[in-house]
Write a structure and sequence with these properties.
Layout (H helix, E strand, L loop, with lengths): L17 H13 L23 H14 L19 H13 L12 H12 L7 E5 L2 H16 L3 E5 L4 H10 L3 E4 L18 E6 L19 E5 L24 E5 L11 E5 L2 H8 E2 L8 E2 L9 H36 L3 E3 L7 E6 L4 H7 L6 E5 L2 E7 L7 H15 L1
Parallel strand pairs: 2-3, 2-4, 4-5, 5-6
Antiparallel strand pairs: 1-7, 6-7, 8-9, 10-11, 11-13, 12-13
Length: about 425
């Protein structure tokens, strides 16, 4: 008999196994992330010839994946712009993996396409934008915005501060446009008087620089042929009644990028690109093909339903629930900065604008001091050639009193 025509047995790997899924959740609940990668030794050096039992594999991989991860929601997790994610997004991500929808084709994503459109329509007005779409991260969002700037307005160069994200210069190179860097002050904020001769340029303003969280003077929007605001970090503050004004002027930009996997508490990879004139931008970014039932807008072809977990979280929390978490993060940063200012053995770079606190010990070697801190409490950065410690309020559950206690102990131990 021709083996090609043989009846294949039913493949249970593609069906719901409730017992295995329950076991997976139990392992998730019982395996705390410890940042320990020692279980990498369990991995074979070469691709296995034969597979193993899938349920048994769950237990083995839980040690590698779960225990080997870092707990971004821990009590002193205060070092990075990577937040913990709410459990509801875990469920939605599981559902997404089950369906594996492709938003390039309406037939394969009848609900997911509409979900993304709805989420974008909810968020865009907070930035003064009319619409946009989701992308895997702000690097793609920035590239998409600069692409639109080139093709809609015919910009001839990209101008940004010397603390702008590396994706801006990368995008300029990809688009074949010259990149011009302008200087910043000691906090990383663009020096407004240095913004000159931008009538034919795309001016990129940053709302929340990587090292310091600084916000450029957003009232510069409109001075150039196209203004793009990289609000990857600080953008969600527009939904907080207490802090929205820190991004005033953003509504005059032509495009805005926001990382949903930062202060919108989404799993990676999730970001948004918004446009003030979405129709004009989409016209420049759209491509078609004989197999497409709808225009392919933007850089990506196939892409998944990243809006599903975002929609679920926004519905569960509402604007006020999200704002409450952001306000708690901002309050934690303010309290820690106040502690640093009050401690004569510590130095504060400047008041935190968007939840990023930059500080360092006085008269203590920084590597020695950093080694005394608990893992995940702080990260390091270099500003104007000088090394600093950096804390980022991305975790609403940070116990700021515990953070202060740990820093105080570290000071005492190195005295």
């Amino acid at each position: 008999m021709n083996r090609i025509n043989e009846q294949k047995p039913f493949d249970a790997s593609f069906q719901v196994d409730l017992g295995a899924l329950i076991k997976a959740v139990e392992l998730l609940a019982t395996h705390a992330p410890l940042g320990d990668a020692s279980d990498l030794a369990m991995l074979p050096a070469k691709l296995p010839t034969y597979g193993v039992d899938e349920k048994a594999l769950l237990s083995a991989l839980s040690k590698l994946v779960l225990t080997g991860g870092f707990d971004l929601g821990g009590p002193v997790s205060f070092a990075h712009m990577d937040p913990p994610t709410p459990w509801l997004t875990w469920v939605m991500t599981l559902w997404n993996a089950r369906l594996n929808q492709n938003l390039l084709h309406p037939a394969t994503s009848p609900s997911a396409r509409m979900i993304e459109e709805r989420v974008v329509s909810w968020l865009a007005p907070y930035f003064g934008m009319s619409g946009g779409h989701m992308v895997p991260g702000s690097t793609i969002a920035n590239l998409t915005a600069l692409w639109a700037a080139r093709d809609v307005r015919g910009v001839t160069e990209i101008v940004a501060s010397d603390t702008a994200h590396v994706s801006i210069e990368k995008s300029a190179r990809i688009l074949g446009l010259p990149f011009r860097s302008v200087p910043t002050d000691e906090t990383g904020r663009l020096i407004a008087d240095s913004v000159k001769n931008v009538e034919n340029a795309c001016l990129v303003l940053v709302a929340g620089t990587t090292s310091t969280g600084a916000v450029d003077l957003l009232s510069l929007s409109g001075r150039a042929a196209w203004t793009h605001v990289d609000a990857a970090w600080a953008g969600p503050l527009r939904l907080s009644d207490h802090y929205a004004s820190r991004l005033d002027g953003i509504e005059a930009a032509d495009s805005v990028a926001v990382s949903a996997h930062k202060w919108l508490f989404q799993p990676k990879e999730s970001a948004l690109i918004f446009f003030r004139d979405t129709q004009a931008a989409n016209a420049a970014l759209s491509f078609g093909g004989a197999y497409l039932a709808a225009p392919n807008i933007g850089l990506l072809g196939s892409h998944g339903a990243a809006a599903v977990p975002l929609l679920a979280m926004l519905m569960a929390w509402g604007k006020e629930g999200l704002a409450d978490r952001l306000d708690r993060c901002m309050a934690a940063a303010a309290k820690f900065a106040s502690f640093v200012k009050s401690e004569e053995r510590l130095e504060l770079l400047g008041e935190p604008t968007t939840g990023v606190v930059v500080w360092r010990p006085r008269k203590i070697e920084i590597d020695m001091f950093y080694a005394r801190l608990p893992s995940g409490l702080a990260s390091q950065t270099t500003i104007k050639g000088s090394r600093w410690l950096r804390c980022v309020a991305a975790n609403p559950n940070t116990n700021i009193d515990a953070v202060i206690a740990d820093v105080s102990e570290a000071i005492s131990r190195v005295d």
